[in-house]
Design a protein that fits this description.
About 30% of the residues lie in helices and about 20% in strands. With about 700 residues, the chain is α+β, with helices and mostly antiparallel strands. It folds into four domains: about 200 residues, no CATH class; about 60 residues, no CATH class; about 60 residues; about 300 residues, Beta-galactosidase, Chain A, domain 5 (Distorted Sandwich), CATH 2.70.98.10. The protein has an eight-stranded antiparallel β-sheet with strand order 13-14-15-16-28-24-23-19. Strands 12-18-26-25-22-20-21 form a seven-stranded antiparallel β-sheet, with no helix packed on it. β23 and β24 form a beta hairpin. It is globular, with a radius of gyration of 28 Å. The two termini are about 55 Å apart.
Length: about 700
């Protein structure tokens, strides 16, 4: 078969050669052609061969990003959610659940991040160009064989640039040798099956020499004058010899690792030199190291596993005055950069080229001698200090065309928007709405206010509460997720403008609807343009197994403007008095019932059982981290709210007394809790002329 459609003749010749090798491994020529003829080379992967983060990132940055509070919290949730599966896998393979889940967390963020590069394209490119071609040809042939045998579907298969893929990022040859069928369906599918992935990970560690019940290592103290040339993973000695050299526990006691035989051999690691943490590591550390041969990677797995078991992490500080940032702190940094007008793309905690350039520009502005673009604690604290002096929210006047727009009939989708499968115009509980149906969920978005009214994951119940006794339009809709913009409440405003902004009482327009490659549906909506207001708003909703909602504010004027805003979520609950919300412990909050007079410190989760404020709440949590988990024991589910571009969370429920005076709430106050992704209180966003700000929330629903 000649690959005439290939642009690069050398690549086509290479594929012809690979076809012969595939034939020898039992893959028929026509099957090879069907899988490979659409593949084009991707030369960008060649640049990544020598830029792996395990070898190019300071270890304190690498571990700060991978072993952060968010990954620990989510990992503990996964241990609870998959407890029965993990107990079974641990009993069969001898690897403890925390270590299995730690691999899962580091490799794919518990199944969230599989990689974005088409696997066949990456491996074919690396097989035909660059160094290590023989290695990558073996991986490509292994992948083709897995597809041919039916373990995997080739279409849409993505992974890392180097070919690792699935929940725990196996290379194809490893997959072929070690993957197991953990769910009993007759296939080994590490992409779609969590049981297959976790069992295969345990099998890998067992075959790499994992010893049941033994620790991976321990943090120790080395004596003054210790010869650093004695450190290194391959320089193993009996524990007794390390004792003789003066190595002790952190408390200065004799080393006595629990679970190890008396003649156990160990190596001493000094990953940041003699002034950083010292670690005595044992056989199980080598098993972890074999998964991805990099010391920083193995330490990430090992220390995350320790924290999942309840440990506090490494005690010795890294030898730096500018520690690395976890993802929540990185999102805070990106939010500050975006507020200063830097176009960094999504606020996602991933520090890419655009974020580094923005950091470098701010370092130069601050007069730092070596502006390196690194996302460390120093630049975060410097920008946070400046943000406390942000101006008060702009005082808006009523746009000249607001009243006419608010009184106009509701608009349906613009005629030039192409109709797509899964999106229809109709009614939801008597409200004109766009109705969305995907394989994973359904949703409804009101034309009036552009308001999310409903989100129902497949097989579940509605995530949103909508008042059954709401007033007639144009009274604002009580429930769902009202869009409060360009100000929250009346923060910074007079009484001449409506509460919670202009757009929640205007008809919105559907600008675009499209189906994404993974089956999710994306809608782009916008309110009408308001005269005399230089700000423009656009909202993007992505509806699938989760719901993503993004507000994009653009300043088309010639001067900066400051805004507050919120996505005012009414989450449906079984009983508001029994709900707990995690993610706010230790945060300061401002209490409306105290006229926001002074900050209070939250202790434990938020709930309506707080003795300071029993049965009601109206709080703005400040310097918030961006992830909150609502636990509902009555509906037996948890709703996770992830926010980006926001450093405030509003928690509100009026309670029985106030709700009795609200015609559209009444005794319905028990049926909802409001958790609002917000820029409010001190979190005022200044959008420079020509700049933009992005506020995003993601809703995820899981069984409790």
């Amino acid at each position: 078969m000649a690959y005439a459609q290939q642009v690069d003749p050398a690549f086509a010749t290479c594929l012809s050669t690979l076809q012969g090798a595939a034939l020898k491994q039992g893959i028929p020529a026509e099957r090879f052609t069907a899988m490979m003829s659409p593949v084009q080379p991707d030369p960008t992967v060649l640049d990544l061969l020598d830029a792996q983060p395990e070898f190019t990132t300071p270890i304190w940055d690498y571990l700060a990003a991978l072993v952060d509070d968010q990954r620990v919290e989510e990992g503990r949730a996964m241990l609870a959610q998959h407890a029965a599966l993990l107990q079974r896998v641990s009993a069969e393979y001898g690897v403890d659940p925390a270590t299995i889940v730690a691999v899962w967390g580091v490799e794919s963020d518990y199944g969230r991040v599989f990689g974005k590069r088409p696997l066949l394209q990456s491996l074919a490119t690396l097989s035909c160009a660059g160094r290590r071609q023989a290695f990558f040809r073996g991986e490509l042939l292994a992948l083709l064989k897995l597809i041919h045998q039916g373990d995997l579907q080739g279409e849409g298969l993505v992974g890392s640039w180097a070919g690792a893929f699935g929940h725990t990022q196996f290379m194809p040859s490893t997959y072929a040798r070690i993957a197991v069928d953990g769910d009993g369906d007759g296939r080994r599918d590490l992409v779609a099956s969590i049981p297959d992935a976790l069992a295969s990970t345990a099998n890998y560690l067992k075959r790499a020499g994992w010893r049941t019940g033994e620790p991976w290592g321990m943090e120790v103290r080395v004596p003054a004058g210790f010869a650093v040339n004695q450190a290194g993973r391959t320089q193993r000695r009996p524990v007794s010899e390390w004792k003789a050299l003066g190595v002790t526990t952190l408390q200065g006691d004799a080393i006595a690792p629990a679970g190890l035989p008396g003649d156990a051999r160990a190596a001493l690691l000094l990953p940041a030199g003699i002034k950083g943490p010292a670690l005595l590591v044992f056989r199980n550390y080598d098993a972890i190291y074999s998964y991805n041969a990099a010391e920083s990677y193995a330490l990430a797995i090992a220390t995350l596993a320790d924290r999942l078991r309840g440990g506090a992490g490494l005690a010795t500080a890294w030898p730096t005055d500018d520690p690395g940032l976890g993802r929540r702190e990185r999102r805070q940094l990106q939010t500050l950069l975006a507020a200063r007008g830097h176009d960094i793309g999504p606020v996602d905690g991933m520090i890419g080229t655009a974020s580094r350039r923005a950091i470098q520009a701010e370092q130069q502005r601050l007069g730092w001698p070596t502006p390196d673009g690194r996302a460390g604690r120093r630049i975060l604290q410097a920008l946070q200090a400046e943000s406390t002096a942000a101006p008060a929210a702009t005082r808006f006047t009523l746009p000249s065309n607001y009243t006419a727009l608010a009184q106009s009939p509701a608009l349906r989708s613009a005629s030039n928007v192409q109709q797509i499968k899964g999106v229809t115009s109709g009614q939801f509980q008597g409200l004109d709405a766009w109705l969305v149906e995907t394989p994973q969920s359904t949703a409804a978005i009101s034309v009036f206010g552009g308001q999310l009214l409903s989100f129902v994951p497949r097989g579940g119940q509605d995530v949103m509460w909508l008042s059954p006794r709401r007033a007639e339009l144009p009274t604002p809709i009580r429930g769902g997720s009202p869009v409060c913009w360009p100000y929250f409440g009346r923060q910074g405003q007079g009484t001449d403008v409506p509460s919670h902004g202009f757009v929640r009482t205007l008809p919105w327009e559907l600008k675009q609807a499209r189906t994404l490659p993974d089956g999710r549906i994306e809608l782009t909506l916008a309110p009408p343009v308001l005269d005399t207001l230089a700000l423009r708003l656009q909202m993007v909703l992505v509806i699938g197994a989760t719901l993503e909602q993004t507000l994009v504010t653009e300043n088309t004027g010639s001067s900066a403007a400051s805004i507050t805003q919120a996505l005012h979520n009414y989450f449906r609950v079984g009983d508001a008095t029994r709900v707990d919300v995690e993610g706010v412990d230790g945060l300061d909050y401002l209490d409306k019932y105290e006229n926001y007079a002074q900050p209070r410190r939250q202790q434990g989760p938020w709930n309506l059982r707080d003795p300071r404020d029993p049965g009601r709440s109206d709080r703005i949590y400040t310097q918030a981290g961006g992830r909150y988990v609502l636990r509902d024991p009555v509906m037996k589910r948890r709703i996770t709210l992830d926010t980006q571009g926001s450093r405030a969370l509003v928690a509100w429920n009026p309670g029985a007394e106030a709700a009795a005076k609200m015609a559209d709430v009444g005794d319905g106050w028990r049926d909802y809790v409001c958790l609002e992704a917000a820029n409010a209180g001190p979190d005022v966003v200044t959008v420079p002329a020509g700049g933009r700000h992005v506020l995003k929330q993601t809703l995820t629903v899981q069984p409790l």
